[in-house]
Write a structure and sequence with these properties.
homodimer; 241 residues; alpha/beta; 5-stranded mixed β-sheet; 8 helices; 13 strands; elongated
Chain lengths: 241, 241
Amino acid sequence: MNRIYAVGIGPGSENMMTAECRRALSESDVIVGYPVYLGLLPEEFAGKKQIGTPMRKEKERCRMAISEAAGGRTVAVVSSGDAGVYGMAGLLYEMAAGSDTDIVVVPGITAAVSGAAKLGSPLTNDFCVVSLSDALTPWEIIEKRLRAAAEGDFVLAIYNPQSKARKDYIKKAAEILYKAGVEKDRPAGYVKNIGREGEEVFTGRLCEVAEADIDMFTTVFVGNSGTKLLQGKLVTPRGYK
Amino acid sequence: MNRIYAVGIGPGSENMMTAECRRALSESDVIVGYPVYLGLLPEEFAGKKQIGTPMRKEKERCRMAISEAAGGRTVAVVSSGDAGVYGMAGLLYEMAAGSDTDIVVVPGITAAVSGAAKLGSPLTNDFCVVSLSDALTPWEIIEKRLRAAAEGDFVLAIYNPQSKARKDYIKKAAEILYKAGVEKDRPAGYVKNIGREGEEVFTGRLCEVAEADIDMFTTVFVGNSGTKLLQGKLVTPRGYK
């Protein structure tokens, strides 16, 4: 049976990859991915056949991977973070269904987890992960989920908060949270370029984050009603007395 | 300044640790943790001073770590999965606040991510992580969050679903989800002992998961309204046409 590894490489730096991630990449004949992420791979994999396809060409990337695998080559499709969290794993399963291809997901450190570690410990209680990208999800559904997250008093980790084409989305999201009862001074923060060059870390209040200059390489965190700022760190209590 | 690493070792197998996790453990003079997780560490760390404290003794564990660090030793406090997701990082920040201790969180692969990889790709869209343990969170809040998760049409990853002392909690949770509109045949699944001896993987319907013999080492997944069972895998579409 042909094999495709859907590999999460973590935030990007080599030291955040798992041993299993490196093993899957070593075993693969071909590595497929968004060129920026291919560029983050350790040098030892530079000699492998690499296929880069641009952003928004995810289906093409999967087709290429499936066709390479059909040719008898072991293929790794790399995602930053984890391959399953908004990554390529789902699309690979959908597109390879019915073919003789075995999809193996190799998990990685997703931005909710790596970003949280930079900010302190915001996710030490129940949390939601929401992407603000309305390229694939209608905005009404995103809005409904933000409201539900606030109503459930979840900590929120927000992926893809905004981009050049989607300006002010984090401000729009904050307005929805305010209406659902989240205070403007709710502890919040963000991490830009986690573990990579240009890393930028901020902790403060939601109203500050809503006005910040953030981009699609930023992960935003909004605390729950118990989250505190402790010596500049975002800390959500677990509930110990 | 004294240093404590809050280290996530991932699901347990050595190949799921990051290089940074091993580096932090190597650098540490003392490793503190729940004995089961200390037992999962690679042999190379067996020569280090190890301090095991029983379950539910988390505050004691933190006190010991802070006191070891105050003695000038570098300390690693290990959690399974990630140190921030229901892990020891939050409590360490709270208890070390005001002392001259630097807490550094070293992220790990949390069960939502490692479990999802075993089941297919359930988390390829917005999701919630909820713990059913009411030891530290009142049940009414857990109930409110389950309802909010259903109302937001989130995929759900459930930690600590039940234990000997908390029987039938997953059944109780399923009843709450049904009332909030989730169908009994909603695609769902679970993974027991992820990546460890005795690993057990199930995908099927929520009503089957609600009746399954699961324990506190199990992570449960409930799909959103779009999640499918594809050749036995749980797959949540991202929204590609």
